[in-house]
């Protein structure tokens, strides 16, 4: 198990601090109940007008081998090399229009992202790991699963138990150990005007907890 | 405190089951450390190419009254009536292009959504509540904070301690008690072809945990 907790400036919930996106997955199925719970967590995500713009295509490697192969074959080569070993492959698809008045839903991608994040938190609570991938062929998914107009494949994900990084081909084995990094909060959290760190951040003294 | 836990088909983590989006906020500041931790949770969200396309404009009602008023004045009237009482207002802004090769980032909205969801989970861990709003004037935010080209205000949020629903104007007081609802998983989780419930869902027997 490769642990690389976020180097946070203040303590955050362990389910969030511990999360990262491994490439090394164990050759081990995940419990159907765990997978259902992850999807249930996504189901209860918040969304604009409660539109729930998310749809998921889900395949278990051992139980749904043909389905699994259909998703796998749409992944970019660089992802297929490791994601094909995961217990589950998933594609998240967004509905691009509101059911309400059939208007474009500018929040659809955002809300699918919320569902994916909550799915990931539920996974972490069950010692399961999620690695999302932008690298897949959207048209391939459209054809393979008959995704209709008005829906857009947005992200793929590999899900499973963590595996041994040494089993990954080079240079992925080394990358697996690379530290995680993020911009400091002062470059993302603004107050007075754009680009000015929020007063919350610039006030002196350490956080009160 | 109005509790309305999600009526889940299987047990999910209490931080996720308990979450909902209240309109009744207490007249009580939130601890700066709690707010920092929420932003830190957002900071460590996953994103495509680790682009971290999120930016946040954040104002505390008591400590940053002028900033707070600038956000408040950009909210739709229907939101302002209750959100003006929250301890914190926030606007999440997405960077629409990858720094990498300056290409359009089709995952930006999705990844901002992930950051907002993790911020919300951290809030729940601290007994704080988040209510996101699509109803605000994006151009108003652009002007008020000098949001540059290449960035798009995507969602606003009210954050605080939960308040007394009876203090809300009618009909919001009644709406606050309305049950939460979501489509069943079988209408969102597909397998064989689009619209067909995934085998995981149709196999007989209750979830194994």
Question: What descriptors fit this protein?
Answer:
209 residues; globular; NADH Oxidase; homodimer; alpha+beta; 31% helix
Protein model, in words:
- Two copies of one chain form a homodimer.
- The model of chain A has no long low-confidence stretch (mean pLDDT 94).
- Chain A is globular.
- In chain A, α2 (32-43) packs antiparallel against α5.
- With 209 residues, chain A is α+β, with helices and mostly antiparallel strands.
- The longest helix of chain A is centred in the middle third of the chain and has 18 residues, at 108-125.
- The first copy, chain A, is built from eight helices and five strands, in the order ααβααβαβαβαβα.
- The two termini of chain A are 30 Å apart.
- The first copy, chain A, has helices at residues 14-17, 32-43, 65-72, 77-83, 108-125, 138-145, 172-175, 199-202, and strands at 54-60, 88-95, 129-133, 151-160, 189-190.
- In chain A, strands 1-2-4-3 form a four-stranded antiparallel beta sheet, with helices on both faces.
- Chain A has a single domain, classed as NADH Oxidase.
- The interface between A and B is large, with 88 and 89 residues.
- β5 of chain A pairs parallel with β1 (54-60) of chain B.
